[in-house]
């Protein structure tokens, strides 16, 4: 990736990390009007950054989060002693004569901070596999797939616009967003030879369709009573589950209001 593309990904990641905090802080200071203003500005900025990555830098299907989280255990470099042993030709492993079990030799045991339970070969294979996954280039998108990804990127803006036109209690924003989501996934379903991250992202988007059960007005009219009844039954009749379901019942209205309104 080029340096400008990395900067765009970094800013996009920062926006996704602080958007809820910015919304709640703005609502506390400037009220409901300020809250919706910051929501629109953040979603507009995210859409512009994603469209730049898609159309200018040909980033392909964009994953969430934009930057792959660092797995410190897998990214941890080999202990210097291991490198010295490799260069000096010492064996890092010992194979049992009767059990054929591979164990680490005492000469190549790393320090406690960098110690792991797998054999050196397993660690090197996992590191190389991880590096291949991260460095895999994005799958080139045709015209149909580019339109599908553009629909997914602009969907939050179209949903916010429909909320402003028809109001939060109308079914039209809910239906519009559902149609855009399903259309985008349908157009992307014909794409073959996706890498592992892109396949995981499409699975994530498909699973997130279940969020429509928690979004107004469907949640207010159909889901709320049934979900609360199910949580109450689990809390009353399943031992130990009440420690999780009772706080969930208390916080669900706040979560539904904050996390399920613009769907971006």
- State the strand order across the main sheet: 1-2
The chain-level mean pLDDT equals 82
Tell me the helix content: 55-70%
Distance between the termini: 25 Å
Order of helices and strands: HHHEEHHHHHH
The parts where pLDDT drops under 50 for at least 5 residues are 78-83, 85-90
The total count of strands amounts to 2
Shape call: globular
What's the alpha carbon Rg, rounded to whole Å? Answer: 25 Å
Number of helices: 9
Structural class: mainly alpha
Sheet bearing the most strands, described?
A: 2 strands, antiparallel
The percent range for strand residues is under 5%
How would you characterize the overall build of this protein?
The chain is an all-alpha fold. Among the domains are: 3-66 and 138-216, no CATH class; 223-262, no CATH class. The chain is built from nine helices and two strands. It has a two-stranded antiparallel sheet. The chain is globular and about 75 Å long. The chain starts with a helix and ends in a 5-residue tail after the last helix. Residues 78-83 and 85-90 have low confidence and may be disordered.
